[in-house]
Amino acid sequence: MIMKKPLIILVLFIIQTIAAQNSRMLIPSEISRNVIYEMQEMGAQLTADDIYNPNQTSLNDAVIQFNGGCTGEIVSPKGLILTNHHCGYGAIQSHSTFEHNYVQDGFWAQNFEQELPNPGMYVTFVRKITEVTKQILNGITDDMDENIKQSIIQKNINQLKKTFPKKEWQDLSVKAFYDGNKYYAFVEENYKDIRLVAAPPASIGKFGADTDNWMWPRHTGDFSIFRIYADKNNRPAEYSPDNVPYQTDAYFKISIKPTRPGSFFMIYGFPGRTQEYLPAVAVEQKVNIINPARIHTREIALNVMKNFMSKNDTIKLQYTAKFARIANYWKKWKGESQGINKTKAIKKKKEFEQYFLSQVKEKNLDPSYLTIFDTFDDLYQKNKDIELARNYFIEIAYLNNDLLSRAFNLYNLQDIYEHKGKEAFKKQAEDLAPNVAQSFKNYNEQVDKELFKKLMQLYIDNMPRKYINEQLLNIDLNKLADEIYDNSVLNNRENLEKLYHKNPKKFNKILQEDPGYQFAKILINDYYNKIAPDYKYIRNQINKVQRKYMKGIIQAMDKLPYPDANGTLRISYGIIKGYQPRDAVLYYPISHLQGVMEKYIPNDYEFDVPDKLIKLYEQKDYAPYSNTGFMPVNFLGTAHTTGGNSGSPAINKEGELIGINFDRVWEGTMSDLYYDQKISRNIMVDIKYVLFIIDKYGNNKRLIEEMTIIK
Ligand code: ARG
Ligand code: GLU
User: Fold this and answer.
1) Which domains does the chain have, with CATH numbers?
2) Is residue 19 predicted with pLDDT exceeding 90?
3) Ligand 2 centre and the CA of 672: distance in Å?
4) Per-residue b or e along 143-153, where b marks 16 or more CB atoms closer than 10 Å to that residue's CB
5) Least packed by Cβ within 10 Å: which of 108, 241, 290, 545?
């Protein structure tokens, strides 16, 4: 008796945590009665049909995937989009020149004519969501070879794309859910004429930059504004000066009511990827082996850059964006590993595994589930070196050294010639040629050379021996770097540009004699011939077992668990709430403009504040967005979000827009592997701050007038 009680409590606890997790990232078409009831219990006045309804206008029609990777929302009947500054950054930067530096000074189009087109940019609406598991898994059996299975699935998807009812301007995308146990089809509309409308200066939109990234308290005005243009029938069209603003009655009304801790909100957007159902052994490998390797690699790269950046302003300007990109996930992985340890996530996952096994027995499920964790142990043991090798290759030879990544592009081009012929080669070379200028724009040879030496040393020291080429073991890196950076076409903008316009024979000949390319080729060949095939082989096996485990979890649980994020439209809800990052520290969930002033460092590249904002702060000129004398800037909530949710609308109980999601808190970033309600928080920019900046800082009344503002 005495022994039993804690066990019951433990099991109840586990079930409760999992039940709580049930409501994390929901498929809009599957909001069951239970879920909407729980949302209403928390204050929501919305119905399931308000949130998603394929037959009439509903909130999903006002949410877009922004340029494939972020989220955005429609806020006016003329197709006005709000998203994050960091999502629009590439576009803002591409329009910036020395005379018109929109990154530094901001950009405010005063009329439609001044709105700037962005070739290649697109946004995606999801009009209808349908489960299509039966059609996609038709002809599939459990014991099938994984490659054959995937090719049948692909055939079924292609077939469905041909037959699925949709309008001619719509597309169909099909995505796997629950590790391939279910499939859903999405009828989408892709609009391709997207114009830049407005952006605050970086000192507002990126305030706090890398130091504040993933952190609370936060004070970033992380928003930018775009507009969808359509053809005269309001349909998607390539850019044309004749296109007109997209018209819609599906747009968010905007609430400027006070932000209140404890109130309900939801996030509607496109979370990219979570892995909540990995076995403990996989999480352990990730946080104890893979993350440390990646963190270490990036630390070296960041230190090299920081050294040069602190001594030279030109280099600082050139490397700021690169530094931010590398630092973003460097910091995230650090937070993730710490968070997994702090929440004892591995132990809890192991307890869940015991519970799973007990349910298998109790519910008489497939007895082969009973050995599934032994299989995982075995596979992840084999996976270790492969995964490490793959990460070292990607981090070193592809992501963090410009010279090597140029070589990688050339290698792929050569491959196109060999496998697809001369015409394909020419076309691809033409498409890629302009990238050379781009690659050299923010490039400094000394920095890259130092990165090359430091990172290659790390590669040689740490690459699992099975995957390292013996030629590398006795190499003199200093000599090699001199030779490559002095002589290689990879370090010569003019010659590299010319190379892209050579015929394939000449192209090959030049590369064959190039010291940089010949060296890179050793690494790339090792990758394609050894690492990638091993990786594919082990991944196929792991995926198969993971799919089975997921199936087992679904059978073992009384409630269907929510599916991992996979880049599809989801909702997640919670309340506005702070957290306790460590003992005796309690974070309030709302930050204010005075906090911007507390952090202000004149002329600092992260914490400078524009004069005009200082003046507005001193005058307390906040009406009608705030009449308390305090201007809210950012706020925290308990919604489960991940990368891809950037730009997502934060929506109040009435369905009005109250903020734009842009980040998570560092202590809670393990939520991609293990969500913990206690310390996982998403960070949003308060919509009142956005309006205040548009109105009082940008003096852009026309945009305010376009929106519907609820007081
Ligand atoms: N951490 C946020 C995200 O993952 C913001 C990144 C942009 N900011 C930066 N300093 N890199 O996208
Ligand atoms: N900043 C992230 C993005 O670009 C969102 C933050 C997160 O990972 O939750 O999507």
Assistant:
1) 4-122+192-270+567-710 (2.40.10.120), 124-191 (no CATH), 280-551 (no CATH)
2) no
3) 11
4) eeeeeebeebb
5) 241
